[in-house]
Amino acid sequence: MAQTAARPRRGGGIRRGEARAGVLFVAPAVLLTVVFLVLPIALALWVSLSDWNGFQSPLNPRVNFVGLENYAAVTTDEGLAQQNFGTAVRNNLYYVLFVVPLQTIIALLLAVQVNRAMLRGRGFFRTAFYFPSVTSTVAIVIVFQFLFTASGAINAVIGFFGGEGPNWLNDSTGIFHGLLSTVGVTEPSAALAADGPLGVSWWQWLAGPSVAMSSLIMLSIFTTSGTFMLLFLAGLQNIGAEIDEATRMDGAGPVRKFFSVTLPMLRPTLFTVLTLGLIGSWQVFDQIYVLGGGTAGGTINTPAFLSYRTSFVDLAWGQGAAIAFILFVFIILLTLLQRWILRERTPRAFRRRDPQPTAAADAQRATEGGVR
Amino acid sequence: MLIGSSGDAETQAVQAAADAWGEETGNTVEVIAASDLVQQLGQGFSGNNPPDIFYMPWDQFQSYAAQGFLEPYASELSNAGDFLPALVEQFTYEDEFYCAPKDFSTLGLQINTEAWEAAGLTDADVPTDWDQLATVAQTLTTDEQVGLSFGREYARLGVFMNQAGGALVDGDTATADAAENVEGVEYVQSLIEAGSLKFPQDLEAGWGGEAFGLGKAAMVIEGPWINGAMENDFPERQFISTELPAGPGGPSTYAFSNCWGMPVGSETKDATIDLIEFLTSDEQQLAFADAFGVIPSTESGSAAYAEQFPENAAFVAGVDYAASPVAFQGAAPVFADFNTQLEQVGSADAATLLDALQGNLQSALDAANG
């Protein structure tokens, strides 16, 4: 009721002109968004549908509309462009599969640890864990390059324990292939050797991240966990002390409390972290760029880097833009999928999975509104 | 002016030349050393703000010319007739001579004289054929150093294919899977297997010259640019450059050149042409040669160079039988892919490796010929 009363009415009265003022106030923001976001995206969409070669404006009259040709070149037309795209998608897929769950779990664990009231020097740990996120990725990649060279610190440690480390950033062996070769499987079966999607054989799809990509996965987890730890920390501090108390009264141990109370209450944060992680890891670019993208037999190439390379180096701007848009659609679809998986379950469904509703679950339901 | 510099020596020399010309003519030239030449060029052209004059790399020239980015000014130069015919051909697209070759480099074999003597080798052992190369590379390989190193890329490995008598392209047909090419790759593989050849990546060096300077490789295959690099980064390194050993198909090396590119419809065309005439004069090219070791692109200049720098005579001698690396429009991604495939060159089957190249090369050729 109060809301209806507050709604500005058109026409006279004390609120006359408010709408116009509102438009005026948002105009700069809208203008900036249109000029720097909407127009470039529209232009890129046009480029992806045209044969623009990178000379002068994409809107000059010599540029022709070619329909979905650029999209077909990387998806359905057999050839190098398709293979490169397929390999890049494969690489990135493994990157996401490893990075997103690991960084989320590590960030959550770190957050729970630095949130404990009993921990001494909490400030120090929070800063220490967050520090890699503040440093530029490029700087960290260069440090990692030194760590991971054949005679670098990592291999020195492995050597100390009597092992022999690989030439990390140049090793293109997929880790699944590597594991298989330890049990003597080095050749694909006929079915796996056949061409799979995007011109890449099934055997190659199943190769796993290469050793070089694995180092990048470690690097990425190292840099992003701190950021997400901070998000989880904020989420954890939203859980009031009274809930802690209630769970303790109900006799729940720390593990039970974590899984039955803390984790469900962190679901909104979890959603944010997973979404940001998913988007970020599909767009991974700077690490690859610093390493040159061509090392390790093309196993660290990603669609984002391929898009850049196709445009700026090979001057196939339309194809580069097409890759970018495919990536865009892909990210949207995956985010929707993830949203659907993490959707709010009805209390009934919730109870069915957990036949004995505990006080903790009740407490969770009671405070749900407040948290969100 | 946008240049892709090989190092400080080159940047300073070009800056000095540009300043000298500017003083003479009253123009100002800002020399920018690109961190990534090809990317910055692409950016300049798409933003409709290309540099007035720039280094045009040999492997991108055909693409740029085919896309209509370049002004075909070269025949208007007063010294247009002085350039080496092979270079004129390299920078000609559809019968039009586009841009003036900046300078010229061939590949040679660099030998670390200290390691050479330590291994008990003499002048008589300087390899002139594949067998001798394999032998000395083996002799020079110790725990600390590998006998031979060169970049893991088409622009080095291709030389071995040519030395075996092969070629990648014959007119409109790709011939990458020819038996001679397989022989070339297999020879390189035999060196890898013997442990006497390692690529710079495996020696923790960015390129062959670095591996050489660090003393991790006793011999490398690089061009005259290695002189400038050694002087700057490893002044202690004593070495000689010799011609590449010949293969069963005869001697072969690659000739690389950049040219002075000018964007199509340049507003400063007249001044730029004047500057390019200045930069490609024998006198100026010999100054560049002195500063960073490249060979002048003109007939008279390269002759004078051979006399003036006897230690680089091997590079000039290579001019006689040098081939230009394959670089037609659309070839760059094919060779980028081939270079990544070469990471497995140690373990891969040579014929399989070249089969893949053959397929990609043929479709790129078909695309280029419309």
UniProtKB/TrEMBL annotation, chain A:
Transmembrane segments: 21-49, 93-112, 124-148, 211-233, 265-285, 316-342
One GO biological process term: transmembrane transport
Localisation: Cell membrane
Membrane-related topology note: Multi-pass membrane protein
Domain ABC transmembrane type-1: from-to ranges: 89-338
Domain of life (superkingdom): Bacteria
Signal sequence range: none
Gene3D superfamilies per record: MetI-like (1.10.3720.10)
Primary localization: membrane
SUPFAM superfamilies referenced in this protein's UniProt entry, alphabetically: MetI-like
Keywords, ordered alphabetically: Cell membrane, Membrane, Transmembrane, Transmembrane helix, Transport
Segments of this protein annotated with the region Disordered: 352-372
Pfam families found in the cross-reference section: BPD_transp_1 (PF00528)
CDD domains per record: TM_PBP2
Example of a GO cellular component annotation carried by this entry: plasma membrane
Family under the similarity heading: Belongs to the binding-protein-dependent transport system permease family.
Name by which UniProt lists this protein: Sugar ABC transporter permease
Source organism: Microcella daejeonensis
From TrEMBL, chain B:
UniProt keyword list: Signal, Transport
GO MF term set: maltose binding
Signal sequence segment: none
Gene3D superfamilies on file: Periplasmic binding protein-like II
Transmembrane segments: none
UniProt GO cellular component terms: ATP-binding cassette (ABC) transporter complex, substrate-binding subunit-containing
Biological-process GO terms, alphabetical: maltodextrin transmembrane transport; maltose transport
InterPro entries (alphabetical): SBP
Annotated coiled-coil segments of the chain: none
Matching PANTHER family: MALTOSE-BINDING PERIPLASMIC PROTEIN, MALTOSE_MALTODEXTRIN-BINDING PERIPLASMIC PROTEIN
Family as reported in the entry's similarity comment: Belongs to the bacterial solute-binding protein 1 family.
Protein name: Extracellular solute-binding protein
Source taxonomy: Bacteria, Bacillati, Actinomycetota, Actinomycetes, Micrococcales
